[in-house]
Amino acid sequence: MERVPIQLTVNGQSYQVEVEPRMLLVHCIRDVLNLTGTHIGCDTTSCGACTVLWNGRPVKSCTVFAVQADGGEILTVEGLERDGQLHPVQEGFWEEHGLQCGFCTPGMMMTAVALLQENADPSEEEIRKAISGNLCRCTGYVNIVKAIQYAARKMRETVPAAVGIAGGE
Amino acid sequence: MIPGPFSYRRATSIEEAIALLQQYGGDAKVLSGGQSLIPMMKFRLAEPAVIVDINRVPGLDTIEERNGLLSIGGLVRETTLERSPLIRQRYPIIADTAEVIADPLVRNLATVGGNLAHGDPANDHPATMLALRAEVVARGPSGERVISIDDFFVDTFTTALAPDEILTEIRVPAPPPRSGGAYMKFERKVGDYAVAAAAAFLALDEARKIVRAGIGLTNVSYKPLRAEAAENALLGQAPSDELFRAAAELAAQAADPTSDLRGPAEYKRAVARTMTFRALQKALSRAQAA
Ligand SMILES: Cc1cc2nc3c(=O)[nH]c(=O)nc-3n(C[C@H](O)[C@H](O)[C@H](O)COP(=O)(O)OP(=O)(O)OC[C@H]3O[C@@H](n4cnc5c(N)ncnc54)[C@H](O)[C@@H]3O)c2cc1C
Ligand code: FES
Ligand code: FES
Questions:
Q1: Are A102 and A128 in contact (CB under 8 A)?
Q2: How far is A70 from chain B (nearest CA, A)?
Q3: Can you tell me the ipTM of this complex?
Q4: What is the pLDDT of residues B167-196, one digit of tens each?
Q5: What is the reported pLDDT for B233?
Q6: Looking at beta carbons, which residues of chain B come within 8 Å of A22?
């Protein structure tokens, strides 16, 4: 069986691993790197539970081969917290009750982080559009929108240096 | 779900990609955004022995106007397309199309080249490119050839591309004066393929008569469809709702949908009629504003 050596920088840490070409990025993250915060909801590119940032862009990691990401930067939910401090997006989900079962939450937060990096003050419509690839079966989305609005406010209020943390890269 | 095993080859130039495709022939598949190919490989509907990843081939991701043509590189992502100021200002029909494809996460990877090369009649760009009379540029071992969009879609999941050819560019004629286009899609929910959708493009002469008409239909036949009879009915006429209703009826007659989870055939035909009518109305308002 062909195996390919690849290098990935995940949450700022460099990993060298050997993978079969058919290994999906989400399986590499969960089963090889043991970062199980990234979830698998549907495995059919529909739900967004597996969303990670790949070179800064949110993508469905169940629909990318790990070999494709060779040399790339990945940010997962585990990379959001810094020195015991929750990322503003995590804090927003906590404060605004942006989750119930929590299954969609890691993917939802990664999409939110990417949105707020591009748009510091998104309207409700822009938030709803941005998360339209992330499905939630529990909340009805209202509190998710509030959580992202909370994070946007918080990030605008903090010094620019702290906002830079969001990149994790 | 895990795809079947394959060998992975990453091309760093177009020449290398073509050489790899030549070497492996029909056993190889090009990988662009992977947003159609990887799902098909998971279901084992596609089991290529070799994947040729072209994502790091430089020069295939530009959007520019030159010599009266818009050139879109095969690897341009949907997100790039929908945000491009050039596309939004000069080709709003293409922005309409890009922003209703799948969802924002899929659009971060999905490419325009892949959308056409996949040959799926449910995909959205084909109808728009038919309405716009685009051309597809293909590179293969014996060089480059330009394929008219009318000759490009051959059958379901089959295009005019040879197994060792790569779609490098899509060319769209620059909009003439007093022209406009629009894409209207009816979907069950965000991110779904169309129940039916229509692309319309109109150009008016100085007397405000229609001198160019393009109508393309999504997901109502075994391949993307150009509604030629409907286009012809518009030519030389002054635009009106009555004229657009007649053209939409002809487009609906050209449609040949099948009944499935998205609805019975008659319903889809009715949706195609309504989408065509609305796309023509919006195309006209853009042409009048141009
Ligand atoms: C959940 C979901 C919803 C979707 N909804 C829509 C929708 O509403 N509308 C829509 O239009 N699409 C939709 N898509 C499809 C999506 O837009 C695909 O990305 C697109 O059809 C293919 O583009 P790609 O770059 O991902 O191609 P890939 O998946 O990489 O390739 C698709 C096929 O084209 C071939 N190919 C790719 N690029 C080239 C090239 N440059 N030259 C030659 N051959 C090439 C490949 O070998 C393969 O056979 C959806 C996909 C998903 C997962
Ligand atoms: S697990 Fe990837 S989209 Fe659902
Ligand atoms: S909180 Fe349960 S799926 Fe979103």
A1: no
A2: 10
A3: 0.95
A4: 999 999 999 999 999 999 999 988 899 999
A5: 98
A6: 2-6, 41
CB distance A52 to A62 below 8 Å: no
User: What per-residue confidence (pLDDT) applies to B119?
Assistant: 97
Question: pTM for the complete prediction?
Answer: 0.96
Instruction: List the domains of chain A with CATH numbers.
Output: 4-79 (3.10.20.30), 88-160 (1.10.150.120)
Domains and CATH numbers, chain B: 7-53 (3.30.43.10), 63-173 (3.30.465.10), 179-289 (3.30.390.50)
Residue B222, both tokens: 């075994």
pLDDT, tens digit, for every residue of B81-119? Answer: 999 999 999 999 999 999 999 999 999 999 999 999 999
- Report which of A61, A37, A35 is spatially closest to residue A48, judged by C-alpha positions: A61
Tell me how far apart the alpha carbons of residues A123 and A164 are, in angstroms, rounded to a whole number: 21
What six digits make up the tokens of A151? 């994070």
Question: What's the average model confidence in pLDDT over B260-288?
Answer: 98
Residues of A in contact with B47 (CB under 8 A): none
pLDDT of A166 over the 70 cut: no
CA–CA min distance A129, chain B (Å):
8
pLDDT at position B290 is: 85
Q: Which long-range contacts (CB under 8 A, 24 or more apart) does A52-58 make?
A: A52/A25, A52/A26, A52/A76, A52/A110, A53/A110, A53/A113, A53/A114, A53/A168, A54/A25, A56/A114, A56/A117, A56/A167, A56/A169, A57/A114, A57/B79, A57/B108, A58/A110, A58/A111, A58/A114, A58/B104, A58/B105, A58/B108
